Amino acid sequence: MDFLRPASWDEALAAKAEHPTAVPIAGGTDVMVEINFDHRRPEYLLDLNRIGDLYEWEVGADTVRLGASVPYTRIMEHLRAELPGLALASHTVASPQIRNRGGVGGNLGTASPAGDAHPALLAAGAEVEAESVRGTRLIPIDDFYTGVKRNALAADELIRAVRIKKADGPQQFSKVGTRNAMVIAVCAFGLALHPETRTVRTGIGSAAPTPVRARTAEDFLNAALDEGGFWDNGKAVTPSVAKRFADLCAAACNPIDDVRGTASYRRHAVGVMARRTLTWTWESYRGARRTTEGAA
Amino acid sequence: MRVTFTVNGRPQEADDVWEGESLLYVLRERLGLPGSKNACEQGECGSCTVRLDGVPVCACLVAAGQVEGREVVTVEGLADHAEQRSGEAPARGTSLDGARRRQANGTGARTGEGTGLSPVQQAFIDAGAVQCGFCTPGLLVAADEMLERNPDPTDADIREALSGNLCRCTGYEKIMDAVRLAAARQSEGV
Amino acid sequence: MPNGAPTKITQGTPTKGGIGESTLRPDGILKVTGEFAYASDMWHEDMLWGQILRSTVAHAEIVSIDTSEALAIPGVHAVLTYDDLPADVKHYGLEIQDTPVLAHGKVRHHGEPVAVIAADHPETARRAAAKIKVDYRELPVITDEASATAPDALLVHENRTDSHIGHVAHPNIVHRQPIVRGDVTEAAKKADVVVAGDYTFGMQDQAFLGPESGLAVPEEDGGVHLYVATQWLHSDLRQIAPVLGLPEDKVRMTLSGVGGAFGGREDLSMQIHACLLALRTGRPVKIVYNRFESFFGHVHRHPARLHYEHGATKDGKLTHVKCRIVLDGGAYASASPAVVGNAASLGIGPYAVDDVEIEAVALYTNNPPCGAMRGFGAVQACFAYEAQMDKVADRLGMDRVEFRQLNAMEQGTVMPTGQRVDSPAPVAELLRRVKAMPMPPERQWESSEGADVRQLPGGLSNTTHGEGVVRGVGYAVGIKNVGFSEGFDDYSTAKVRMEVVGGRPVATVHTAMAEVGQGGVTVHAQIARTELGVAQVTIHPADTQVGSAGSTSASRQTYVTGGAVKNACELVRERVLELGRRRFGTYHPAWATAELLLEGGKVVTDGGEVLADLVDVLEGEAVEVEAEWRHRPTEPFDLRTGQGNGHVQYSFAAHRAVVEVDTELGLVKVVELACAQDVGKALNPLSVVGQIQGGTTQGLGIAVMEEIIVDPRTAKVRNPSFTDYLIPTILDTPTIPVDVLELADDHAPYGLRGVGEAPTLSSTPAVLAAIRDATGLELNRTPVRPEHLTGTA
Fold this sequence. Notes:
The complex is a heterotrimer of chains A (296), B (190) and C (793).
Chain A: E1 2-4, H1 9-18, E2 23-25, H2 31-36, E3 44-47, E4 57-59, E5 63-67, H3 72-78, H4 84-91, H5 96-99, H6 104-110, H7 117-124, E6 126-132, E7 135-140, H8 141-144, E8 145-147, E9 150-151, E10 158-165, E11 171-176, E12 187-194, E13 199-205, H9 215-227, H10 230-233, H11 239-251, H12 263-295
Parallel strand pairs in A: 1-3, 2-3
Antiparallel strand pairs in A: 4-5, 5-10, 6-7, 6-10, 8-9, 11-12, 12-13
Chain B: E1 3-7, E2 10-14, H1 23-30, E3 49-52, E4 55-58, E5 71-73, H2 78-88, H3 95-105, H4 119-126, H5 136-149, H6 155-161, H7 173-187
Parallel strand pairs in B: 1-5
Antiparallel strand pairs in B: 1-2, 3-4, 3-5
Helix pairs in contact in B: 2-3, 4-5, 4-7
Chain C: E1 9-11, H1 28-33, E2 48-54, E3 60-66, H2 68-71, E4 76-80, E5 91-92, E6 99-100, E7 106-107, E8 113-119, H3 122-131, E9 133-138, H4 145-149, E10 173-181, H5 184-188, E11 193-201, E12 213-218, E13 224-228, H6 233-244, E14 251-255, H7 271-281, E15 285-288, H8 291-297, E16 300-301, E17 304-312, E18 318-328, H9 336-345, E19 355-363, E20 370-371, H10 378-396, H11 400-407, H12 427-436, E21 446-447, E22 450-451, E23 469-482, E24 491-501, E25 504-510, H13 520-532, E26 536-539, H14 557-584, H15 590-593, E27 596-599, E28 602-605, E29 610-613, H16 614-618, E30 623-630, E31 649-662, E32 667-678, H17 685-704, E33 738-741, H18 758-775, E34 781-782, H19 786-790
Parallel strand pairs in C: 2-15, 11-34, 13-14, 16-20, 18-19, 25-26, 32-33
Antiparallel strand pairs in C: 1-26, 2-8, 3-7, 3-9, 4-8, 5-6, 10-19, 11-17, 12-13, 12-15, 17-18, 21-22, 23-31, 24-25, 24-30, 27-28, 28-29, 31-32
Helix pairs in contact in C: 6-7, 9-10, 10-18, 11-12, 13-14, 17-18
């Protein structure tokens, strides 16, 4: 095993080009477990800790460019307003110690269906900024996950940052685990209201081979909200709409039975979380509208 | 490979480090600092919690090569770390006073009578928060860091801050007592 | 001496620090500074690392093992298999020596040791292990009672010669213990209601945090010195020496720091392997399991299937109880026979019932071996009989607590074994106390800023802001024996020395007691202070240079080794007074006539008059006594009727659980787990409460999350990690108010009662009862998972 310690991003890209099998290690919260338990013996470890750029973020007009290694703790503390869904998801990641080390780049690189960031990124809308010595490309989050623990990165590419749409409405994130802290998702659900486009986006974690959106559910809800004039009249979402939405979210799952939970439970739980997060976000949206109207 | 870094304020160097070794292994097996514990080696138990450039992390998940040039504080350095902190705080007297206090209290570590401990270490002993003690070093580092950030924590804050540290012996009640005690003593400036 | 070899711990205290006080741990400072040396912290110049190659399948014939490639790796110093074992004895075991040191021709469970390696770095050792070629021919797996006792079932162990084979119906049954008392058939006719139920109890892991570890150092005399974390040095020694082909005096053992045990260190793990490698290579060898290996490195709590039938009259008196308890012992016997005895004899719980029929069996299967864990056979039964008690009360329309109190045993009650309980048994009182404790406030998760998710089911995962959350309350009470039972010669040895050091009298207590975190060292020092009147007590490291202290299990160390320390102190005191009489007897008549005590470093009369300073009495002489001490003898249970005075003491705890359940998602938050327990006499109140809270939390774990999941098709463990075997975090654990009752047992030292295990029994059924109360579901298995609460299992 060789330990590569690039001092800059360019050096890191060069190293990855030279050694495409090199395994990037940043927070180490996935890679080191696999090494400690003898599950993996990569030829090269490519340490990204010395590359300061990866720990920075920029808040732009429409998006946040989040460095791949920004720890979850920083996201929780500093980006709650811009990225509320991801901030909530970050808070559910493992433990404080892990949140101090792990970042979204690692979640994306590992591309485990159970990664906590995925549902929030899917719901918010994001692009993965992948870079190699050949250049930079932006991979839409919807196209990023290609299979169980597989993603759209080329062998010579590294994740530089994620460009996440700034919230234009309420966002929520829920995750079910069989413990009240420090737990891997049995399944998870992210939901974002986008009042500017009058759309709702979702993300489901750990209930299919890859993180997925519940597109049919989104389409149904978008149409139902539109038809009922909900975005304008600020009425509560009717229980039948919420239930149908929840059922369609559950139907979007393609889960397995494993030691963490049954497929049947995962479907059920995704439905419950979908209904609850819709209620929470919609009530928040209504509350904000009332406040705005009251002020006006 | 060679790894050079600072542990508890002292420069350290480890040679012939295998590239897959963790910071935890280097501390325990190469530097003679076994205080950080090896309970799970998968980031689930917090027994190996150390401060890496001030931030609490699981030493088992930091590759040895990643600490090159960085600063680590382990449980072995916790008392000094806490003392320096209180020395720096304007309301708490000078660091010279701190040093005098330490000297005055400094009987041998094996006597069972207290000395040169950080407030949170003393509180763990006093509150009965130590049984087998294997989780204790990690909990102390995590609790000390929380009290540094949040000197007046609610119970829910304490539980959240320590949710990455498993204890199998105590049922956590005495640990809660200990952290509350440390916070109270800290606020009294004791 | 290697780094980390334990040294003496001396504790001096300005206070009296005797029994009844909450003195602090003598090892506390070492433990908070990181200086306390656990087994995995040991280090020796030139040491090698040991590694175990374990079977990847559960049941197979070993066709061949090829170690040549592994041996060729630079840095590898030894690779050993069964064929390399040096002595005629090649098996070990606590009671039945059925466990091969290394697999011989066959593996019987997933993760069984097949070969051991010594190398200069753990990674070298791992790479070598990966190069060993083992050719397995897989066999069908035996995983449950049906497959174990089928007429054509393969035998897990052929040619059994142990003492139980004569009374079991099938060689795949380790041991069977029936208990028959009264006439159940006749009694059942008086029952107005009869309730039957089937229950399942999952496999729990001790999950002590300090993994199995040790360092074996070869010695010049051809022997070996083993520094190890264990529960019973002398039991280890008895099993290790024959396999090494060494007399016991050439195998020296010293206890290193133990990071928890809970029963999981009663059996050997790496001990023999490390010694074999050290003797073969002539170098010190350290073995440290990681968490993955730890799940294969020790026995677990027996999973169980239980069938119960309870009958009662309409005025609430139990008429009879019938039960059958099937424990899965896995591939090797370990402590299964004794666990069966406990499950049977404590099978109906702390209730007075005249007509009883009980059967408990343990199976041999290809599942992971199971043995001792805190609560030892009484835990599984308590989960089932307490569920039954609720059901019967409900059928009768009675209050669940009152129904228990109406049937509660008390001092004088005759157990199903025919044993009359001859010390306080305040079962009804404990229930009354735990019920009387104030309830936690409703909706405590609500704050001015909305719901605090940390206090709701799901916690930080943000699954509910109050939706679907229903509160439930449940009660349970349990009974556990203290000390080793069934005629076992359960004794401890203590060596106590008194001398003057630095102008002060100092007592040194030397036992082989394994301090595993429970605080035995604290209590033993307190006993010495009380008995010898000295402030300063030194606790000598535990080793085999002194006689056996028995096991740190069965809640017995304060009782039995504490009893031995008390006894040795009394003998030392006699000798000291003897010295005093010789030296000063002529100066004061009280030396001859008065009752004399040692207090505050002085010899005093019972009237408080000071006769002499201990420093002067001892005058440079050291007084030392080593003596054994035993509790009252017990008897084996009759193999047909289960009758016999099998236990020496019983302990009791009651719990009230308050839970909040997210009924839609099936997630549980335990809000409070109150406990009332009788401890006879609290030698150290702080430690007593700590034990109760810790035991309570382990019971909570098995109620809602902890389970080793074994694939029934392959008998392979599916979740050997802390990622998927979950134990409670601080956010899963509620406040645990404790009400300690002290009703002395006149047969025990100071009237004390073993503390550690009873709280593990009743907390599980209390939590389950509370979840049933919240959900209305029947819930006949534990742990209860979200699937069971949402109909999606």
